[in-house]
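This section describes the prediction task in plain terms. A model, or a person checking by hand, is given the sequence of a single protein chain and must write out its three-dimensional structure as a string of tokens. No templates, partner chains or ligands are provided. The sample shown here is typical of the held-out split.
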Amino acid sequence: MNDRLVQQQTEELERKLRAYERLIEKLPFPFMFTDYETGITIEKRRGDVQPRLSPARIAPGKETEWQWDIDLYRDVPFEKVEAFLTPLLDLVPHHIVFVDDHGIITLCNLQAAMDTGVDRDAIIGKHIRELLKLPDELIATLESLEKREPLYNREVLDRFYGIVNTRFIYNDDGSVKRVISIFQSLNMMKETEKLAAAGRIAAGIAHEIRNPLTTVRGYLQLLKNDLPDRITSLVERLLIPELDRANDIITDFLNIAKPRDVKMETFNLHRFLRDDVGVLLQSEALLHNVNIHFDLDEQLDDYEMSGDRSQLLQVFLNLFRNAIEAKVAKTMNVKVSSRKVNHIVQLRFCDDGPGIPSPVIDHIFEPFFSTKETGTGLGLSLSKKIVELHRGTIKVQSDACGTCFLMEFPLRSQPPYFSS
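The expected answer:
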């Protein structure tokens, strides 16, 4: 009976020993473990299949020691490294894309996905040409991969204007593991230069014109009571409104050139759309015979947004006024909708107006571009700047059946912050 018990215990110890041996064999990184109680050191070097055992000085009561040398590129599956890096690279305001040695995308940061208008999760595993929508010969990353040479500050002039850099990560055998492509858009720099010039103009206008306008308006208010009714009516219906309009234009110049600081506050996204945006637009809608509908994604009912409420309201007001200025029918329908798409909140503002002509649509967000005789071309440009200050993007789609503005904001990372 005792022999049988001893045999069972021996077999159990042998099973445990084999399990420990397999564990040590499967550890993917080099290590050294010293047990001072038994006087044994177990060492596994990079490339070893079996660990090495050697004697160690016995020192009862002394703690065991672990030493290891983990190389992220060699010892950890690179897909896990990319999964770890993705939320960090989402904070970078440039396009960052990793591809393998066949040009297949293995990592795409949020800025690249949003600017190219793709589903970030869906583009992983696809060829980089599907992200950039360009022929292979025009894709700098593929050129770098083909020549096995990194690119340094290469200027690109395709869908986006900017500077691209590439770097390589190699396997131990010298083959390419990844090509890292970082693209810095210069479109924003060009726009910043244009806005800086506008800022200088706006400052001069504000100083040279706004004060005289205020003086003229004040005197008209004082004098109108002493003027004949015919002149008083002209002052109230035409002169004062035109002075106010001129003052509004100056204000728009200042806002687009030197936008106010974003005053962050946290609020429920759908409550903001229904209550704040809805109430603001409804009062204007009644005046212009416009019907407003809301189609909000239930998945977002509990999401809170952090942003500048008044600036975001200004965006919706600008989009609404842009719609009614193009209105040709007696009535118009406007729909505001929200959708959660992976890690992005999509807000749509759509109308059933006459649409925007093709030659015009590419320029509508440019400062001072307008097709209206009385327009300043600042409303949509200001809206775009506000959305970008909230780490979002805004795009437009239009045809003969209407126009739809699509705004996208990240669910996580930089402002606006959403949390459930």
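For orientation: The two ends are 63 Å apart (CA to CA).
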